[in-house]
Each structure stands twice: as C-alpha cells, then as structure tokens.
Specification:
Low-confidence stretches: none
Shape: elongated
Number of helices: 9
Distance between the termini: 51 Å
Order of helices and strands: HHHHHHHHH
Radius of gyration: 25 Å
Length: 222
C-alpha cells in the first residue's frame, strides 16, 4: 500500500478511536446530568491524553515492525546468498545495466557480504517503509481533529446560549455523520463495501455512546 496507504490507515483508525472515545465521554457526562464545563474539561483531557497514547503506540508498533522486517531480510540473505545475488542482478538491470554488467557488479558486491548488499535491499523498501514518526503524527492529529467533533456543539454553546439545550442532539448528529464517513474511508484499507463499513462504524459508535450514557445515568443517580 506504500506510505500513502499507511497514512490513510493511521488517519482512519486514529480518527475512529478519537471520535468514539470522545463521544462516549460526552454521552457519559450527559447521562450523569453533569455540568456543561465537565464535558469540555473531560473531552479535551481525553483528546490530549488518549491522542498522545495512541500516537506513541503507533510509533512503537511501526518501529518494531520495520526492525523485524529488516532483520528477516538479513537472515534470508545469510541463508541463501544465491537468492541475494539474483535479486542484486535484477536491481542492477532495473537501474539500466546490461545483464552481463549486472552479473559482474552483483558478483563483486556479493563478496563484501551484507554490509553492502543490505543497503541495496533496503534502498527500495525504505521508499515504501512506514515512517514511524510521521505515522505517529498522523495518528495524533487525526485523533484530535475527529475527536473534536463531538465537542464542537458544546464549545459553540459557550458563546451561543440558545443552543445549550440542543447540544447533545447536535453532537450526536455531527458524530454520526463523521463516523459514517470515517467508516466509508476505512473500506479503502480493508477493501470492503463502503456503505457496509460506514454503517458498521456508525452502529459501533452508537453502542459505545449508549453504554457510556447508561453508566453515567446510573452513577449520576447514586
């Protein structure tokens, strides 16, 4: 899928996590009949803390995956030097060398072991490898931006008192629409039907919010 596909994946899953968890916080606070300021405080705390946590997890997992793949390539080269030579020949030909020259160059390079051949093997893969730091940044900002959606109605309500009583309905509508869009985008990663994927995320997000609302309602009665 390359870098673009990797960033789409980080954006979609970071955004889904952000919007679902933040809306669950909003639903729980509303269910507990707590003050409007509590929603904003807990909502933004969730955005920053969970967003950083997810970004860190994405960075570590991407870094570990990259290191594992590089280690596996090194092992294969050590176990099968002829296979390494064949790949080198193909790489040299791809760079414009004739077959005869490619064989000569690969034979020479093979004499120097993995210290040289690794660089050629990784030259192409580095172009397609995930950049752990960029993935982490994409995850964090998508978590924050999409997670901000359920809070928008409450932020605006601070300046427009007339919409305070409708804030939860506005937040629910915006969240539902965004969940469907993110679910549809997820179909690019999973190669599934976009309508089914959108509805699936809408339902999952709805159940998460409903559960949080019920918990907040029950605890608020204590």
């Amino acid at each position: 899928m390359g870098n673009q596909g990797s960033y789409v994946k980080s954006m979609v899953y970071g955004g889904l996590d952000g919007i679902i968890t933040t809306f669950a916080v909003v639903a729980g606070v509303v269910g507990g009949a707590l003050d409007l300021r509590v929603i904003i405080i807990l909502g933004f705390s969730n955005l920053l803390a969970d967003g950083f946590s997810m970004a860190t997890g994405d960075y570590l997992s991407s870094k570990s995956e990259k290191e594992y793949e590089e280690h596996q390539i090194s092992l294969k080269q050590l176990q099968n030097p002829e296979s390494t030579k064949t790949v080198l020949i193909q790489r040299c030909q791809n760079m414009g060398l004739t077959e005869e020259d490619a064989v000569s160059v690969s034979t020479i390079l093979n004499r120097y072991g993995t210290s040289v051949t690794d660089q050629l093997f990784y030259e192409d893969t580095k172009k397609e490898d995930n950049n752990p730091i960029k993935n982490a940044l994409v995850t964090f900002f998508s978590f924050f931006i999409f997670g901000l959606v359920p809070l928008l109605a409450y932020v605006f309500a601070q300046f427009i008192p007339g919409i305070v009583s409708y804030s939860f309905f506005l937040a629910s509508g915006l969240t539902g629409l965004t969940l469907f869009i993110l679910g549809a985008l997820k179909s690019r990663v999973t190669h599934s039907n976009w309508i089914k994927s959108g509805l699936e995320m809408l339902i999952i997000g709805g159940f998460a919010a409903l559960f949080a609302y019920i918990v907040g309602f029950l605890l608020g009665k204590q």
